[in-house]
Specification:
- This protein has 353 residues and is of the alpha/beta class.
- It is built from twelve helices and twelve strands.
- It has helices at residues 30-45, 68-76, 86-95, 112-119, 157-163, 175-187, 206-223, 228-243, 245-260, 263-278, 304-315, 327-338; strands at 5-10, 15-21, 51-56, 101-105, 108-110, 122-125, 130-132, 155-156, 168-169, 296-300, 319-324, 348-352.
- Strands 1-2-3-4-6-9 form a six-stranded mixed sheet, sandwiched between helices. The protein has a three-stranded mixed sheet with strand order 5-7-8. Strands 10-11-12 form a three-stranded parallel sheet.
- Helix 12 links the parallel strand 11 and strand 12.
- Helix 7 runs antiparallel to helix 8 (228-243), helix 8 (228-243) runs antiparallel to helix 9 and helix 11 (304-315) crosses helix 12.
- The longest helix has 18 residues, at 206-223.
- The chain starts with a strand and ends with a strand.
- The mean pLDDT is 90.
Length: 353
């Protein structure tokens, strides 16, 4: 069994390399979070440590918090098993430390993994590294200080560099070397020592920020009216803007735990694990089976959903039989399908029975 651990090695240059090891994606399991706290405490205490670089073993920074914990919480309703590290570890221990930290990111930095990188004082990434805060797609919000958006769309390192999330993109073979030098440059003030939580230079005036939040709330109501995590995310962002980043992190920690127990989170986490399970079915997915080509599909019901499905199938050159027991609904369904300029009746049978 692969050991889940965090190690630290101090080089002759005084830079401590803290390495996360939890294959396959270096998930931030509870022991990893505890290990990070232990190694950072040691690094702050040691006189031979000048600066720190955080990296993931095996070419992956971190896939984020171990969401297997969520399944346990959903079964028991007990949130005490959720870590409370956003303030204690990510802010007080790492971001507010007297020694600078640089995240050396490769492969992926997702969820809590990206939040770990964000609390460092600089981020150096290898090309094509995947960056994302996917928590909203699981019915929650980022819980380690990363609540900054209402979308979970992934980006790559190059786009992150343009957005200011990544400080430099360098070849993989130079990643650790550049990160070490960058950490020492921060220490010597040749590079800026930035604590992201306290930055306000991108916010504009309070009234401007409030206008943006108002528009975002209206958009969230229109596009995701039954997704409470989106409005909750905006609540936390507003708290941080109005009362300061530290206050925002405190609210984020409380709200993120509450959302884990929501029905939306329970459903989305179930879907996440169901998708993973169905992709690995013994004697099915591992024996080289190939799906047969679909030539004809019957769609039962010509309502909004049925006609939409039929339209998508027709546009994929699949023969469709649309069955509807109500002639009025059938005619509406036909009109909806024919409303697409790309769809015609050829290859489709409409049945009322």
């Amino acid at each position: 069994m692969v050991e889940v651990k965090v190690t630290m090695e101090v080089g002759n240059d005084g830079v401590a390399i803290i390495t996360i090891s939890n294959p396959p994606v270096n998930a931030l399991a509870i022991p990893i979070l505890a290990g990070l706290k232990e190694k950072y405490t040691e690094a702050m205490r040691r006189d031979d440590v000048k600066a720190i670089v955080v990296i993931g073993k095996g070419g992956k920074f971190s896939g984020g918090f171990d969401i297997n914990v969520f399944q346990s919480v959903h079964k028991t309703g007990d949130i005490s098993g959720l870590p409370d590290e956003s303030v204690d570890l990510f802010v007080n221990t790492i971001e507010d430390a007297k020694k600078p930290s640089v995240a050396a990111i490769e492969g992926l930095a997702l969820g809590g993994g990206l939040e770990l990188a964000m609390c460092c004082h600089a981020r150096i990434a290898a090309p094509k590294t995947q960056l994302s805060l996917p928590e909203l797609s699981l019915g929650i919000i980022p819980g380690f200080g990363g609540t900054t958006a209402v979308l979970s769309k992934p980006i790559i390192a190059e786009e992150g560099r343009k957005l200011g999330l990544i400080d430099a993109v360098v070849p993989s073979e130079e990643l650790l070397k550049v990160a070490r030098k960058w950490a020492l440059d921060i220490l010597e003030r040749r590079k800026p020592w930035i604590r992201s939580l306290h930055r306000t230079d991108k916010l504009g005036s309070l009234s401007e920020a409030c206008d943006v939040l108002k528009m975002a709330r209206q958009q969230a109501k229109q596009t995701a009216p039954i997704m409470p995590q989106r409005q909750a995310c905006l609540d936390v962002i507003e708290e941080g803007i109005v009362h300061g980043g530290y206050s925002g992190v405190l609210k984020e920690a409380k709200v993120s735990k509450q959302l884990v127990l929501s029905d939306v989170s329970k459903g989305l986490v179930h879907v996440f694990f169901a998708q993973r399970t169905t992709s690995k079915i013994p004697a099915v997915t591992n024996v080289g089976l190939k799906p047969r080509p679909i030539k004809k599909v019957a769609v039962i019901g010509g309502g909004l959903m049925g006609s939409g499905i039929a339209t998508a199938l027709i546009l994929s050159d699949i023969y469709v039989v649309l069955k509807e027991i109500n002639s009025e609904y059938l005619l509406k369904g036909i009109k909806s399908i024919e409303g697409s300029q790309l769809v015609h009746r050829r290859g489709t049978i409409f049945v009322c029975s």
